[in-house]
Specification:
The complex is a heterodimer of chains A (505) and B (361). In chain A, the strands form 2 sheets. In chain A, strands 1-4 form a two-stranded antiparallel ribbon. A two-stranded antiparallel ribbon of chain A has the order 2-3. Chain A is built from 22 helices and 4 strands. Chain A has 505 residues and is mainly α. Chain A folds into 2 domains: 155 residues; 301 residues, ABC transporter involved in vitamin B12 uptake, BtuC, CATH 1.10.3470. Chain B has 361 residues and is mainly α. Chain B is built from 13 helices and 4 strands. In chain B, the strands form 2 sheets. Chain B has a two-stranded antiparallel sheet with strand order 1-4. In chain B, strands 2-3 form a two-stranded antiparallel sheet. The N terminus and C terminus of chain B are likely disordered. Classes of the chains: A mainly alpha (505), B mainly alpha (361). Chains A and B meet through helix 12, helix 13, helix 17, helix 18 and helix 19 of A and helix 1, helix 2, helix 6, helix 11 and helix 13 of B.
């Protein structure tokens, strides 16, 4: 009976996943994307590709969870899984189709359920027939999933697969060309030079839109590098990071925009913005840093919200422009050359990133950085070995805030505008997500995180609605499967081991 | 705090020991000065207005208290902030909304007074069930695999879950605002008129319902935790998981039950919010969630009576605060967040004290 039960569990789980896909409108979207890609008019192949993948997984999951070895067991488990999965989806789709046939406007309650959405799933058949077809299809696909799992468990299959994979990998890795290339003395340097050249040329080749995206990704890399020092190195969860970003942006706006009387140049505003952000960071950190990790997160979140609400409130309208924000923020001028196009800013942002990477790398190898990392690993032990944690926490907050201030200054002067909606909680969560998903305390991790989280959604514009949904799911999945992130930091080698020290003495 | 004390070296000059009282005195002085100005110098508001503020504050406070209980229960057992708790409340509110729409569609909502009451009860049951289901699922998917991970890991997972639930609600139900269709006997903005100082003050039916229900839920929860076997098991697990497991308590099940109870409370709070405030949308859980968390911290997180007291106190403070301090009403939310920050700075153990000692965390 355990086979039937685990099959039913799998089916129920995946059935709900498929219903979820239909409810959020993912089936329609994938359907149209696949149709566009294959240049066909029918959308059901794409939609069913998505639904059937889940059904397939349902079958193989059921088989795997009972560690089935015989055809009979696997068939029983995956058949149940497929049936239950099909029943869930079929009842849902059939029910919806019936409700629609009765003339009710389902979109009044569930906005993604267009008549086409359901028609795609049920192949435009009558409710009952459609539901039956769904049950049949799911069962077949889940059975296939279970059987494939069994085949993949066969010894000879696994052996062939493993040997093929290792030989393929070996052939590439141990080939003479790769060996020669990696043993080349200046391999690391050449790699960086190539990347740098590519980045130098890119803004000239790309159009305005892509340069804008590139700049945004760059600003997020700066923010990520800064938050990485706070979260990744020191282990202090800061959810109000956007507040420092806002302080940098508003400083440059107030100091340079023509509507105020100050009207200094960008180069004056830049250090002032950074210093103000640092000061705020220090001021905030002094009272709150005695708190434990999760309390700190909530307090910083509250602080970020306070700054945002204040920035759009009436009492500060004279300084912040309220909800309308500040326009005509000045850009930097170098030797009479006005940096005001998006392309120029890409270079400028690149400089900021290089500074950020430099600081992070120096920190990682310095006494301060090691103290921060020790604090992250275990605060009590860090204190016991003589690290005055409060001081280092303040320092970490200050350095992180400096980068946020820099990012804010560049952001406001590139957009030539700043307003309260640029600094919502989502900004803080975006930066946090990119640090965590990329890999804590890892520079390539931050870069990759920013590219994936801010760059990728631009490539897949249609998927933009699902971006935050995917972030949320990704955060949970990453924490469960890979809490160290996609590209985790390389642990440094200890300077001397216990044996060495004993040998020395 | 022994480690803390020893780490305070001479060169730090005990900065925080000096800074904290200074900030405290400044804030208290400002507070008294504003109160003096508003109450005795300017005298903008009459007694009727103050009563209106108190009524709305107590009602809101009841909702906060019910949500805060969920935070406190989960924190008491797992020592983690269930960041997605506000979103459970939001989903409960949506469930109640759909239930009411269904009753309206079936023509039962206003058939007679009896039917209306049945519909409202059923709506609450639907909202509470959905809340419990979501909370239990949340624990299974997002928290249980991380039971033994470092402290920040489940918190990040909870933030992810909160983001996921919010955006799922936005995608599925749309970003538009939905209006609750109350049955006619508890129509919004109808109620008893009280005469205070020659002015009419409205005491709404929904407000009274909300308040009475929240008190009932609080009493029920208190009895559940103190008097039943399940409550005893919960308290045992909160005290010491390993020992509880040795005594034959199924820790996983107790944690599941705790999440179910917190979900029931959040779902009920969601329906109350919908019936009383009328408008719900995908982001509706965020602010009440944050404020309820503030309330839980204020009362001493992990402390059940503390959460009730904190919730009511926060509701009243938030309703009276802007008027009493002469702040613009726009800054109501700033006040709540400031209270959170101030409580955490000056009395992190809350008004009634954290029931759980430091070393257990």
């Amino acid at each position: 009976m355990s086979k039937v039960r685990s099959g039913a569990q799998s089916g129920l789980l995946t059935g709900f996943i498929d219903i979820f896909f239909v409810l959020v409108g993912l089936t329609l979207l994938v359907g149209s994307l696949v149709a566009e890609w294959l240049d066909i008019s029918a959308q059901w192949p794409g939609a069913w590709l998505l639904l059937a993948t889940v059904a397939f997984w349902s079958g193989s999951r059921a088989a795997r969870s009972i560690e089935a070895q015989t055809w009979k067991d696997v068939s029983l488990a995956s058949l149940t899984a497929g049936l239950v999965h099909g029943l869930c989806l079929g009842l849902f789709a059939g029910g919806m189709a019936a409700v629609m046939a009765a003339g009710a406007n389902v979109r009044q309650w569930l906005v993604q359920i267009y008549p086409e959405t359901i028609a795609l799933v049920t192949f435009d058949l009558a409710p009952v027939v459609g539901a039956l077809v769904i049950v049949g299809l799911s069962t077949v696909v889940a059975l296939a999933g279970g059987w494939l799992y069994l085949l993949s468990q066969r010894q000879e299959w696994r052996k062939t697969w493993r040997s093929w994979r290792t030989s393929a990998v070996d052939r590439v890795v141990s080939s003479r060309a790769v060996e020669q290339a990696t043993s080349f003395k200046y391999f690391d340097q050449t790699k960086y030079v190539l990347v740098a050249l590519l980045l130098l040329i890119a803004p000239l080749v790309l159009d305005r839109y892509w340069n804008f995206i590139l700049g945004t990704v760059g600003i997020y890399i700066i923010l990520g590098l800064g938050l990485n020092i706070v979260v990744g190195m020191a282990g202090l969860l800061n959810l109000g990071y956007a507040a420092f970003f806002a302080i940098g942006a508003y400083t440059v706006a107030i100091l340079t925009a023509p509507q105020f009387t100050v009207n200094t140049s960008f180069w004056v505003a830049l250090p002032v913005g950074i210093v103000l952000a640092v000061l705020t960071g220090v001021l905030l950190s002094l009272p709150v840093l005695r708190m434990r990790g999760d309390y700190l997160a909530i307090v910083t979140l509250g602080f970020g919200e306070i700054i945002r609400i204040l920035s759009k409130s009436d009492i500060l309208t004279d300084f912040t422009g309220g909800p309308r924000g500040i326009r005509a923020v000045a850009g930097p001028v170098i030797f009479g050359l006005k940096l005001n196009s998006v392309e120029h800013f890409v270079y400028f942002i690149l400089l900021g990133i290089i500074a950020g990477i430099f600081v992070t790398r120096r920190l990682q190898r310095s006494r301060l950085g090691r103290a921060l990392m020790a604090m992250r690993e275990d605060e009590t032990v860090a204190q016991a070995v003589g690290i005055y944690t409060l001081k280092y926490k303040v320092l970490a907050f200050a350095i992180g805030a400096a980068f946020a201030g820099l990012g804010g200054v560049i952001f406001a002067s590139r957009n030539r505008f700043t307003g309260p909606e640029d600094f919502t909680l989502l900004v803080s969560i975006n930066v946090l997500s990119l640090v965590i998903i990329g890999g804590m305390n890892s520079i390539p991790g931050v870069v990759v995180g920013a590219l994936v989280l801010k760059g990728l959604p631009e490539l897949l514009r249609q998927l933009d609605d699902y971006r935050m949904l995917a972030f949320g799911a990704l955060l949970v999945i990453m924490m469960i499967l890979r809490p160290e992130g996609l590209l985790p930091a390389q642990r440094g080698q200890p300077v001397s081991t216990v044996e060495e020290m004993e040998a020395e003495s | 705090m022994a480690a803390d004390a020893s780490s305070r070296s001479a060169r730090s000059l005990n900065l925080s020991r000096f800074v904290r009282p200074a900030i405290g005195v400044l804030i208290l002085g400002f507070f008294i000065w504003r109160l003096w100005t508003v109450l005795f110098v300017e005298q903008i508001y009459g007694p009727d207005t103050w009563l209106r503020f108190v009524i709305s504050g107590v009602i809101l406070g009841g909702v906060y208290a019910v949500v805060a209980l969920g935070y406190t229960l989960v924190y008491g057992i797992l020592f983690m902030i269930n960041f997605a708790h506000g979103d459970v409340m939001m989903l409960g509110a949506f469930a109640g909304y759909f239930a009411l729409e269904a009753f309206k569609g079936a023509g039962l909502l206003n058939r007679s007074l009896g039917w209306s009451i049945v519909c409202v009860i059923a709506t609450f049951i639907v909202g509470m069930t959905v809340g419990a289901l979501v909370a239990v699922l949340l624990e299974r998917v997002a928290y249980r695999p991380l039971r033994n991970a470092p402290r920040l890991v489940p918190l990040i997972s909870a933030i992810g879950a909160s983001l996921f639930l919010q955006n799922m609600a936005q995608l599925v139900f749309g970003a538009a605002r939905h209006t609750y269709s109350n049955p006619s006997f508890i129509e919004r903005n109808t109620g008893w008129n009280l005469m205070v100082g020659g002015q009419e003050v409205l005491l709404t039916y929904t407000g009274v319902l909300t308040f009475v229900l929240s008190i009932l839920l609080m009493v029920g929860l208190y009895l559940l935790v103190q008097r039943t076997k399940m409550g005893k098991a919960m308290r045992a697990v909160a005290e010491d998981k390993d020992t509880a497991a040795l005594m034959g308590i199924d820790v996983d099940r107790v944690i599941s039950n705790t999440f179910a109870i917190s979900g029931v409370l959040a779902g009920a709070a969601g329906v109350m919010w919908g019936l009383h405030m009328g408008i719900i949308y995908h982001y509706v859980g965020f602010l009440p969630g944050m404020k309820a968390f503030t309330a839980a911290v204020m009362g001493g997180i992990g402390n059940v009576p503390g959460a009730m007291l904190g919730g009511l106190a926060l509701g009243v403070m938030e309703a009276l605060g802007p008027a009493a301090l002469g702040m613009p009403f726009q800054l109501k939310d700033v006040l709540a967040f400031s209270i959170l920050v101030l409580v955490l700075i000056f009395r992190p153990t809350g008004l009634l004290g954290e029931v759980l000692s430091e070393e257990k965390v």
